[in-house]
Amino acid sequence: MNIDLKITKLNQIRDKALSDIEKISSSDDLNKAKVQYLGRKGELNQQSKELKKLVLEDRQQLGRVINQVKTEIQQVLTTRKKELEQSGTKELDQTDTSLPGIRPQTGFLHPSTQVMRQVNSFFRYLGYSVYEGPEIETDDNNFAKLNLPLDHPARDLADTLYIKEPDYLLRTHTSSVEIRAMLNEKLPLRIVVPGKVYRNETTNTTNNSMFYQYEGLVVDKNINMSSLKGTLVALAKFLYGEEVKTRFRCKYYPQVEPGAGMDIQCTFCGGKGCPVCKHRGWIEVLGAGMVHPNTLKACKVDTNKWSGFAFGMGFDRLVMLKYGISDVRKLYNGELVIEEIA
Ligand code: DAH
C-alpha cells in the first residue's frame, strides 16, 4: 500500500470518528468510542504498527498524520464530553421537583386499630370521651355492681378466668369500666371504652379466649330508649353505609332493663342467608339497654335525677364484617390479611 493510500485511509478513519462522536449521547458510548479509535488496540494504533515497514521519509510523514488525526479525535471527544455534561445539568434543572417521589413500601395499621380509631372519632364527634380501665378486675366491678346475681351463669368458672379466686379475675367484658366511670366521674357522663376482654373459650373461627369489646355508656337527664336507638343506628350507618339495615330485639342482660340486641343485615349475602350469618340473614353485633336501676344505685347515682343507656359490642366481629375477614384468628396471628382487606 503506498503512502497516499495510507493517508486516505487515515482521513476516512478520522471522518468516521468525528461523525460517530457527534451523534453520541451518553458518556458510556463516549468511552467506547475512545477505546475504539484511540485505545491500545484501537484503529489508529493499528495504523502505527504499519509504520515500521516504511522507509524513513514515509514513516515520518505518516507518523505526523497519525498524530494529527489522534489529536483531532481527542479534541472532538473532549468537546462532546463537555456538551453532554452541560446538557445533563440542563436536564437536571428541568426536573419537576413538585412531582411525587417514589413511595417506599410501608406497613399499615392493624385493621382493628383502624376501625377502632374510626369508631372513636365517630363517638368523639357526638361528645363522648374515650375511657379506659384495667384488664385485671375485681369481681365487684365485673359482676356484682352490674347486677349480675351470684348464681348467674357468667360467673361460672367455665367462662371466667380468675387471677385469684374469688375476688380477682380477667375482665370478661368492658362493662366493668362503666362502674369505674360512674364511681369516679362527675355526671352527666358520655364515654366509650375500647379494650381487651378474656373468657375461657375454645378458639375457633369466631371465638378467641382474648378478644376486643367496645362499650358505651351515657348517664344524663331524660335519656331513653330512643336516644339509644338513634345512636346505634347512626353508628351502623357510619360503619356500613347509609343502606345498612338494622333491627332491635328484646334481650336479657342483667346490667340493663329493658335490654335489647341489635342485629345488622348480613353484609355478605344481603340478608339471603349464607355461612357467615349461619343462614339467618342477620348478624347480632351488640347488646344494649337502659342501665338497670340496681346498677345505677350500686354506683351511688340518684335514679330520680339520672337515667342512662349502655351498649357493648364484640369489636372483632365488626372488623370482620367490614373487611370480609372470615376467621377471627387472622386478626390475632402474625400473618398479613392484605389479600382480604385490599
Ligand atoms: N356485657 C355484655 C356482654 O359482654 C354486653 C352488654 C350488654 C353490654 C348490654 C352493655 C349492655 O353495656 O347494656 O355480653
Question: How does this model look, in words?
Answer:
The protein has helices at residues 3-23, 27-38, 43-50, 56-93, 111-125, 139-142, 175-184, 225-240, 293-298, 315-323, 338-341; strands spanning 129-130, 136-138, 162-164, 168-170, 189-198, 210-220, 246-250, 256-265, 282-291, 307-314. By secondary structure, the chain is of the alpha+beta class. The chain has 2 domains: 3-89, no CATH class; 111-341, 2-Layer Sandwich (BirA Bifunctional Protein, domain 2). The strands form 2 sheets. The protein has a 7-stranded mixed β-sheet with strand order 1-5-6-10-9-8-7, with helices on both faces. The chain has a 3-stranded antiparallel β-sheet with strand order 2-4-3. Helix 5 (111-125) crosses helix 10. The longest helix has 38 residues, at 56-93. It is rod-shaped, with a radius of gyration of 41 Å. The two termini are 76 Å apart. The mean pLDDT is 89. It binds 3,4-dihydroxyphenylalanine (DAH). 3,4-dihydroxyphenylalanine (DAH) is lined by residues 173, 175, 215, 253, 255-256, 287-289, 310-312. 3,4-dihydroxyphenylalanine is lined by residues 173, 175, 215, 253, 255-256, 287-289, 310-312.
Could you name the CATH topology of the largest domain? BirA Bifunctional Protein, domain 2
Name the CATH superfamily classification of the largest domain.
Answer: Bira Bifunctional Protein, Domain 2
CATH class of the largest domain: Alpha Beta
What is the overall number of helices? Answer: 11
**Class computed from helices, strands and strand pairing:** alpha+beta
Q: Which range best describes the helical content: under 10%, 10-25%, 25-40%, 40-55%, 55-70% or over 70%? A: 40-55%
Approximate strand percentage:
15-25%
As a whole number of angstroms, the C-alpha radius of gyration is 41 Å
Q: How many distinct beta strands?
A: 10
| Uncertain residue segments | none
- The count of domains is 2
Large-scale geometry: rod-shaped
Instruction: Outline the biggest β-sheet.
Output: 7 strands, mixed
How do the SSEs run, as a string of H and E? HHHHHEEHEEHEEHEEEHEHH
**Which CATH architecture of the largest domain?**
2-Layer Sandwich
Q: What ligands can be seen in this structure?
A: 3,4-dihydroxyphenylalanine
Distance between the termini: 76 Å
Describe the strand arrangement of the main beta sheet, using strand numbers: 1-5-6-10-9-8-7
